[in-house]
Amino acid sequence: MKKIIIAIDGHSSCGKSTMAKALARQLGYIYVDTGAMYRTVTLFALRNGIFKGDSLDAARLEEMMPQVNVSFRLNPETNLPEACLNGECVESEIRTMEVSSHVSPVAALPFVREAMTLQQQRMGLEKGIVMDGRDIGTVVFPQAELKIFVTASAEVRAKRRFDELKAKGDDVNFDEILRNVQERDYIDSHREVAPLRQADDAVVLDNSFMTIPEQNEWLLQQVEKAVAD
Ligand code: DC
Known about the structure:
The protein is about 50% helix and about 20% strand. The chain is of the alpha/beta class. It has one domain: P-loop containing nucleotide triphosphate hydrolases (Rossmann fold, 3-Layer(aba) Sandwich). Strands 2-8-1-9-10 form a 5-stranded parallel β-sheet. The protein binds 2'-deoxycytidine-5'-monophosphate (DC). 2'-deoxycytidine-5'-monophosphate (DC) binds near residues 104, 107 and 134.
């Protein structure tokens, strides 16, 4: 079967990575979580004192960017890629509320986006890839054969995030998470560089009230159509 590029974009916490992972597994494709890449750069910034409170020293981060190496390593047990910062696996560190609440300004920096975009484009050279993020169908792979734009209501997304963090044992507050989801939506959609927007040729998936099996079936139908084109 012809290999294609599948770009999955959409709002934060609407299950993009879960669906992208499952789809990649079913198709035997490579899965790339680009949000993890921006989160990893953010973790580097936090660890190196580049944030003073909420304010970010962009010039210092730009100077230090050559010291930031983001990569993925396949976890042999789960068979899933895990994000690494300079060779250290940071998959769980990048999922904390601290990283979530600092990632948007980092992801808005042009020099950060440029570095990550180039790396993502290299990963897609051979096709057979499912990549999720915010600008995959619009900036990284405008030529992707299949573009999906995922959304769900802010409340449904905050509840999913809340359940996920709670299950990990984190001490979480629903209202704080809802505020974080809404703030990220705003920043992601209003930033100057590569804002979150639906590509003209993307198919929209609102999964607020969809079960995972229903969603998988819908996705596979889209893939079949895209491969046949
Ligand atoms: O998908 P996520 O919540 O892990 O993404 C983390 C942040 O990174 C989010 O604020 C948006 C940003 N991001 C981006 O700007 N571009 C991407 N391609 C992926 C994520």
